[in-house]
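Quick start: load a record and inspect it. Here is RNI-like protein:
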Amino acid sequence: MFFSVSTGTISRKKISSPIPSSSSIDQHNIGLEGIRGAEIVVKLLRVQRSIQRIILGHNSLGDIGTVAIFDYLRSEEGKRHRITEISLNSNGIGDKGLWAIARYLEDNDSLNTLFLQNNNFEGERPIMLRFVLAVNRSRLHTLNLTSNPALSDSLCSTFLTTLCASRLSDLQLSLCALGPSSVPALISFLTSPKAVNLKQLKLNGNSFGLDGLTKIIDALEQSNWSLNHLEIYACCTNEPHSEEGWKALERRFSTLILERNRFLTNRAANDALVLLRHARPALLHYGRITDGARSRLPMELVIHTLSFLDPALSTSQHLRICKYAASPDTLPSVGLTLPSVGPSFRSPGKDPSSWLLLRPQHTSIAGSSGKNAAEEAREEWLRTVGCDRFEPETFNILNQPTNDEDESVKSGMA
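Running the structure step on this input writes:
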């Protein structure tokens, strides 16, 4: 397996500042340097009403330019931009720039994609700790730290042990000089509830060795049910006679573990939508029926009967769907306005139960542009109710509701 690694060479092109598109600024590889380059980016931001994507890869902004850009984005003027994607790969950014990025993430509720590969981060503990805590609070679903080998120790001692980002589904740590000593921290993260939302992980070009890779795969097979895409290529190339062992290991994690996880994830999502469709009429008006319906079934029996519709859901997942179905506040807006065309008074697709027939696109990165609005809404709802993954009951003990929480669920339906 071969890898093409960007060297971050700075192109000495004449710097220009073209008018950005209506929703993005693309200044990739045009020779932006330091504070002068940051001033050009800020100028482009100021002339646009709303920017969603900032693409600045393969420049030379460094710490000083990065700090200036993120200081502006944190200002009252800069906050009008609801940025969803920022690309700063190969910009010579160090820990001061990483600190500025962390400050921006702490108060941001729109950024979902961040590319920081091939920079000069050293990962001093206070800075790395602030960065990972900011990631935990953010709405990031994609984080790329590929080709940052100086982060090796920090990724193990601080980043992986502290990472608990509820929305992070795509993490890329290829070529980060992770070795056998990183394996325990990586296994601890991947087998804990902190990683239940992680769908894609890339660890190519590290140095785990065949023994380390085997330990990782063993742990995933026993205790991880959510990872759907894993890349661990070229991680034992220096070991003699490792080719045959690697091929057997690859077959094992690609056909057994990942296929298993994909099947169970899709089954859990489908069962959640089936349950919602039938739980709505069963629970929405429970306890509000007038005299003459005194013989209704006890709530506990209704909930138990509904559980036969969702064999792939855990008890906690089942109760969350039931609570959602029983609440009038979760009903979609009827939208009683005169339609300009057609007889329908309800916008299609707003009620989650109407997404049952939707099938997710076969894309490798969650939230990619290949998904339409209905599919993205479906994924967001499944994530909100915690049914975007399979939870075996043995694993779910860590997230099982307490007696008080269980009673609150039932009382909320009564």
